[in-house]
Structure formats: C-alpha cells, structure tokens
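quick one, 219 residues, struct below
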Amino acid sequence: MKLFTYWRSQAAFRVRVAMRLKGLAMEKVSLDLLKGDQFAPDYQKLNPEGVVPTLIDGAGPPLVQSLAILEYLEEKYPEPPILPKDLRARAHARAIGQMMAMDAHPFMVPRVRKYLEQDLGLDEPTRMKWIGHWVDLASEAVEKTLVRDSRTGKFCVGEQVTVADLCLAAHLTSAKVLLGRDPSDYPNAGRIYATCMALDAFSSEHPLKQPDAPAHPTH
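---
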C-alpha cells in the first residue's frame, strides 16, 4: 500500500500507527504541505481537497480522510481490532477520537494557519494563542471524559488500543511539538499517552522520526 503523508500531520500519524498495529506494509510518499506539494496536479487527481493522508490500496480509487481510512482498515484487516466489540463501546471510542480529530485538529492545520496569517493578518503570537485555545479545550474535554467513564482503562476504552488512542496520541503529540504542551498536565490522558508511546507502533511513527521531519522543527 502507498500512503501519502507529511511528517507533522496528525491525520497521517493516526493512519501510520494503525497500519503498524495491523502489520501492514506501507510505502510512504512524503509531501511538503508548507511548500504546496499537495496542490500539484497529479496529487489533486488523487485527493482534490489537497490534504493528507491519501491511501492507495490496490487498483481501486484512492482512500482519503483519516477516520474513514481507519474504518476501511478495520473492516478489511480486522486483526488486531482497533474498535471494541461492544456496540456502545465502539461509539464511545469513535466519540473520543472525534473530539480531537474533528473538533480540535482542523484549527491547527497548515491551510488554516496560513489563512490566519495571510488573510486575517494575525501575527505569530496571536495565531499560536488562537490555536492553543482550541487545542487545550479539546485536551480538557477528553480528560474529563476519561475521568468520568468507567470504561477508561489502560487505554481510552478498556485494555486494548482503539481509534480513540490513535487520535489521542496524535493530538497530544501535536500539542507538545507545536505548542510545547506537556501531556502530563492531564493525568488520565497523559498516562494513556505515555502507555501508547511506549509501543513500537506509536513510537516508530512519531512525527519527529519521519524521514521528512526537519532537524529543528519550527512553527
């Protein structure tokens, strides 16, 4: 399978980890989103939205949007599972993941930050304060959710990795790399994050370990 990715992309991080967990081989194709590689005509044919990841699996149409790709991988390659068996637990895992992947992540992607800078004229400190506001709200909401729910265990939902953990790891990694946030500020989320990052599937796909990651990342 061929995966179009970008070192700092939360969405691509989620998919890379899932593929590692499921033992799926991937050929990574790195795009530099800051340089505009995603707008190249050949890539636009694969993903008209001009975002990552895009997954090519066989001769069928390209797969886009990380959460949809995770569902595809779960259905086609069900072992090991990344969704619980219980129906309500599955919905809970999806909900936790979406709190970060859908409600927070969009505020910090390159195209939004570029709009804030070039179209709204916000300076760097103001932009980072704005991004940090939404990222922190999501982290706090997830922490409260984990605290109150009896299904919280070694991971977000029980004792096995689920999509919730994939999203949590990506979210808190971005918060740390981009904003300098400390995952341990959130006792439950931080504990689960540390547990995830101790696993090779997570640690080996850390953004800073990607071949296209800069030696000295900046905002």
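The chain has a mean pLDDT of 95.
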